[in-house]
Structure formats: C-alpha cells, structure tokens
C-alpha cells in the first residue's frame, strides 16, 4: 500500500473535534518516553502541552488561537503517520501483512500448476505450508485485538482506502479469534492455544521439508 497523504481540501473538511481527538490519540500513542529519539520526545510532549493548554484556557480568543496552532501541528504530524512509532498510526501493526500480500497470493506458488512429479508436489506443498505458517505468525499478534479497537482514531482522519483495509483486517482477525475461542477445549489462554497450534504446524512443515530434502538428494545422485 502506498503512502497516503491528505490533500488540503481533506484537511480543511475535517471537523475540529475529530482533529483534536486525533491529537489526544497521537499524544498518548506516540510512546517516546522510553526512546532515544529526542525529537520524537519533544514532539509528543509539545503536542500534549498544546492539548492541555486548549482545555485550560478560558479566554475565548486565546483558546481559538491555541486550537488553530494545535490543529496545524496535529496535521503536520499526521502527514508522516506511516513513520510514526507505537500505535499512533492504526495500520502500523499491519505493516508486515501489507508488505507480504504478494507472497500470500495463491498465484505466487509457481509449483501449484505443474505438479508432475514428487519433487514438484513436495515443492508446492512446502510453499503453501510456509505461507500458512507466515499467516499464523502474523495472527499471533491479534490476541490482544480488543485493545486495538479501543485505540482506533476517528474514521474521518483516515482515507477511504486506509479505513477499508483496517476494517477488513480487523474483521478477519476477530472472526479467527471467535472461531478459535469457540473451538477451544482446554483452559489455556488464546495466546497459548495459538502458540501450540503454530508449533505443531512447524513440526509438520519440518517433516515435509525433510522429505523434500531427501527427494532432491536422491534426484542428484548418479
């Protein structure tokens, strides 16, 4: 997914309450307190200070002036949301999935169409299993999904493309969580259940890879 930058028209159309809500979100989620990023610390602290100044100011004229300054700062920070730390940008936690969508495509398995011999059969199976493992490893990140919902920024500050992708990934993850919760028979936590399943799957993958290794070794033997 390419970087999305708000146009001036979009910025002007954003409701003030949504921009300020975004400011509160950014000040909370930037998470530079334990970072060595001096500029990042200053930015988050300065934004938090500006937000607090608006809330405490009783003079209407000054309050409006502070709001305008804060809105400009929030929008400047938001324009660089793809590089923000922590959960400031809602899609940041999905960067791995976004970058790997081409790998997850069924068309990427070049051996699937021509399974003419044992080697190609095992190659196709190994590829599919590795892709499924990759998806499962990403899924482990969603065990704390409920907290992500609570941190969502106002929809109006996301582009249509960003909001559509966010909703799709969250819905997929919630369906997976609900399915796994309904089928869970033990007293283990969701994370323990998913971790056990992934570990078992890795064992199966290792067996398939070992069989593929034997096939390749046999083929190259004189």
Give a concise summary.
The chain has ten helices and no strands. The chain is mainly α and 222 residues long.
List the helices and strands and how they pair.
Layout: H1 8-13, H2 16-29, H3 38-56, H4 60-78, H5 95-99, H6 101-104, H7 118-139, H8 145-150, H9 160-183, H10 190-220
Explained architecture:
This protein is mainly α and 222 residues long. The chain is 68% helix and 0% strand. Helix 2 packs across helix 4. The longest helix is centred in the last third of the chain and has 31 residues, at 190-220. The chain is elongated. The N and C termini lie far apart (48 Å). Mean pLDDT is 76; it is low at 1-5.
Tell me the span between the first and last alpha carbons.
48 Å
| Morphology call | elongated
Protein structure class: mainly alpha
Mean pLDDT over all positions = 76
Unreliable sequence segments: 1-5
Beta-strand fraction estimate: under 5%
Order of helices and strands: HHHHHHHHHH
Strand count, sense and barrel status of the largest sheet are: none
Q: What is the percent of helical residues?
A: 55-70%
Q: Determine the number of helices (DSSP H or I, runs of at least 4 residues).
A: 10
């Amino acid at each position: 997914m390419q970087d999305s930058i708000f146009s001036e028209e979009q910025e002007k159309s954003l409701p003030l309450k949504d921009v300020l809500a975004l400011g509160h979100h950014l000040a909370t989620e930037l998470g530079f307190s334990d970072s060595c990023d001096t500029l990042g610390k200053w930015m988050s602290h300065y934004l938090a200070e500006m937000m607090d100044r608006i809330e405490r100011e009783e003079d209407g004229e000054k309050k409006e002036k502070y709001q305008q300054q804060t809105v400009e700062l929030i929008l400047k920070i938001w324009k660089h949301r793809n590089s923000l730390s922590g959960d400031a940008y809602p899609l940041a936690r999905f960067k791995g999935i976004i970058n790997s969508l081409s790998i997850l495509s069924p068309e990427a398995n070049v051996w699937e169409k021509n399974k003419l011999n044992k080697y190609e059969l095992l190659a196709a199976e190994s590829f599919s299993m590795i892709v499924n493992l990759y998806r499962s490893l990403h899924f482990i990140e969603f065990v704390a999904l409920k907290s992500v919902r609570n941190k969502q920024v106002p929809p109006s500050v996301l582009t249509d493309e960003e909001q559509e992708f966010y909703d799709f990934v969250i819905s997929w993850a919630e369906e997976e969580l609900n399915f796994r919760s309904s089928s869970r028979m033990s007293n283990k936590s969701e994370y323990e259940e998913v971790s056990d399943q992934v570990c078992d799957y890795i064992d199966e993958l290792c067996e398939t890879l070992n069989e593929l290794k034997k096939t390749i070794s046999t083929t190259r033997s004189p």
